[in-house]
Amino acid sequence: MKTTTKKNTEKETIAKIDQQLQKYYNISLADATDKQIFNALAHIAIDESFVKRQKFSRNCKRKDGKAINYLCMEFLIGKTLRTSLFNLGLDKTVAKALKNKGKNIENIYKIEADAGLGNGGLGRLASCFLDSLATLDYPVTGHCIRYDYGLFKQKFVDGQQTELPDEWLSSGDVWQVPRPDKACIVRFDGYVTESFKDGHMQVEYHDCQEVEAFPYDMMFSGYDSKNVAALRLWAAKSSNTFDTKKFSQGEYAQALAEKNEIELINKVLYPADDHMQGKSLRLRQQYFLASAAMQSIVATHKRRYKNLKLLPKYIAIHINDTHPVLCVPELMRILMDENGLSWDESWDIVNKLVSYTNHTILKESLEVWDESLIARTMPRIYSIIKEIDRRFRQEAKSRHYNQGVIERMAVINSRRIKMTNLAVIASHKVNGVSKLHSQILKEDLLGDFNHFYHNKFTNVTNGITHRRWLCESNPRLSALIEKLIGTKFIKNANELEKLEKFVEDKKVIKEVEKIKFKNKEDFANFLKETQNIDIDPHTRFDVQAKRIHEYKRQLLNVLYVIYLYSQLKENPDADITPQTFIFAGKAAAGYRRAKEIVYLINQLAEEINNNELVNKKLKVVFVENYSVSVAEKLMPATDVSEQISLAGQEASGTGNMKAVLNGGLMICTADGANIEISNICGEDSSFMFGMKAEEVENVWASHYEPASYYAKDPKVKVVIDMLNEGFNGVSFQGISNYLLSTSDGGDPYMCLADFDSYVKAHDKLDELYRQPNLWHKQCLKNVSKMGYFSSDRSIEDYARDIWHLKKM
Ligand code: 26Q
């Protein structure tokens, strides 16, 4: 147990809350609204965090510490108050103190909107990493954009997904401290002229648009640590001088129009995690983030250490996927144009600073930009990219690489700029996010580079912060764990292994079972409150919660549900375990096929749930508006977690880790981190099925024939026929055609090829589920092995192998 320090006694906590309420609202605790109490608590947490961070920074400077700057276009933060209080060791005292005053802390937590500045895995990973970095006392600043609108709110209208704006700032801005002292200017468009003066290149900018990058800092304290992570959120403001000139010349309307255009940059998060779109606004966002972050890093370094050649000693820069890779030419620009360093000196520094994580091998996700767009939008950056490309080609040629290979590796090819290649060439380390994914990168996607560079590629398997995803989201299981092994696991997840000695203890296993049931009851109540849907916690909860995407194969899951439905329709007394299939996740707004899958699930749910003959044993629900907060309720209530991507397609997955950490069992393919979870948790820890990644390659090469499954497997026939017939009066022939077709419009993720093996895995799963003691024993056994998948371990890997950080 974290000792409650003297300063945090209940009485003093109340006094602090009172003081904040007086200061901001001139009101006493007894009369304050929950919203006012929320704000008061937020201010207490911020003040404590600021003091803590300042102390840490001083210490860090004294000890010559190196800091990591983590650049990401997404941080999927969720709510902040609970985590802040938990990590500062204030949660219990505050809850108790408020309770004594007749207030319920849970109602206060509810006030806060999720900060949904991300689409899915990549953004949530960034947030988990901040928590671990802060907890492990590694100095860190995250950089992201302060989107006015986070990921859209999902609402179903007649079963179809619609999108509503997410106005998170109304409750979210309390955490953000404006830093006018750190603002800087980012230039777009126009043209540059380059000339030589005294042997130095002079770059002049003409007719460019100047945008002020204005940062807001959020503080995330570590747990039981000395450190606080800062997340710098950059907003775009039209720069004042620019405005006043126009205003005073009487061009009022135009000045305002330009102001609006500039402030578009941080208006909205792009709602896609799967498809590269060459939208110019997205490119502007990327350069805006990259430039602002680099300027602030260099400015701070110069103030502290003067000498730019010392940058690699004090700074590491990590780019989370290629989205912030323009930081490479931008840093070159700053070092050369603004500080007079040579190309070679600058390149050496950049290469020592920058490292890159790849999160996808899907071809359509890899970023490629039109050369002409980059040339227009950021002319100076374009000329630096061209020079990087020229020098790379020259080196490859001098090492006798053949022209075809050079073209594949080059930054610019066929008038397009390949951001992956730029990221690989500029970074000293490149990593994938699971063993399989890193192997595919080395052997396949980036195979040429793996030959070209010695030791550049490595693996860091993803992790999740078990503090948020177990301690905070599953207080019942967490309390049981504390009772059994104490509280050390909160700081050191490997301690969870000590649970292993309880897996034979029937009383403990019964406890585990009871806890799962209670969590399922909670989730059922939540669903009743939010969507007015009844589900029965006595049924098995089979959950697939993640972005809706063809490669993740929600359709394969749907096929199985239809198959069960067909059996029950034929014989309502069939011996089938009562199950509730729970889907959750958003489809990218412009992704037609994904939206059709959402519609199918909703129509299927409507039909099945209204069929009195089957709905005692089978129910289907689609949880609206999946978010971090919904995940925090759903993961603890999960019995079965569906991780069924086509092997080789899911880089890692992190929802798999959240489910297993909360005592769920996976039905999964041999993909991403599923493989490592299954290996580490041991034989029988999950229900694996389907083709392996190598087999997938072979089937693709030798031709996939979906129609043969329809002809040979009666299960497939039944299911496809039912899709054609339709659900709730709507035919889904489009989807059945897709599943059966081999042409371009067909299913590249081969659902039918894995269907039979998937059904068999369900049968096996069912067998274990019928023996509750064995089932829950396996659940606890898995939990005991999940320490490895804490993001604390991932961060230790990055710190040691890639960033070379010292703990402060
Ligand atoms: C790129 C260009 C234009 C518009 C959007 C994008 C874009 C945005 C987000 C492309 C990709 C993403 C996000 C990818 C992502 O979330 N990948 C997931 O990363 C997780 C963390 O490593 C992995 O666990 C998942 O397997 C991977 O899918």
Structure description:
This protein has about 800 residues and is α/β, with parallel strands linked by helices. The protein contains 34 helices and 25 strands. Bound molecules: ligand 26Q. Ligand 26Q binds near residues 270, 277, 433 and 654. Ligand 26Q binds next to helix 6.
Please report the distance between the alpha carbons of the first and last residues: 23 Å
Given as residue ranges, the uncertain stretches (5+ residues, pLDDT < 50) are: none
Category by helix and strand content: alpha/beta
Q: How would a textbook summarize the main sheet? A: 10 strands, mixed
- Number of strand segments: 25
Query: What small-molecule ligands were found?
Result: ligand 26Q
Mean pLDDT: 96
| Percent helix | 40-55%
By DSSP (H or I, 4+ residues per run), the number of helices equals: 34
Q: Note the beta-strand portion.
A: 15-25%
Write the layout of secondary structure elements.
Elements: H1 10-25, H2 34-62, E1 67-71, E2 75-78, H3 81-87, H4 91-100, H5 105-111, E3 115-117, H6 121-135, E4 140-145, E5 153-157, E6 160-164, H7 169-172, E7 177-178, E8 184-188, E9 191-197, E10 200-206, E11 209-221, E12 228-238, H8 240-248, H9 252-263, H10 280-305, H11 311-314, E13 315-320, H12 327-338, H13 343-353, E14 354-357, E15 368-370, H14 371-377, H15 379-398, H16 403-409, E16 412-413, E17 416-418, H17 419-426, E18 429-432, H18 435-445, H19 447-452, E19 457-459, H20 466-472, H21 475-485, H22 506-531, E20 540-545, H23 554-570, E21 579-584, H24 592-609, E22 618-623, H25 628-634, E23 640-643, H26 655-661, E24 665-668, H27 672-681, E25 686-688, H28 693-702, H29 706-712, H30 714-725, H31 733-740, H32 751-769, H33 772-785, H34 791-803
Parallel strand pairs: 1-4, 1-13, 4-12, 13-14, 14-18, 18-19, 20-21, 20-23, 21-22, 23-24, 24-25
Antiparallel strand pairs: 2-3, 5-6, 7-11, 8-11, 9-10, 11-12, 15-17, 16-17
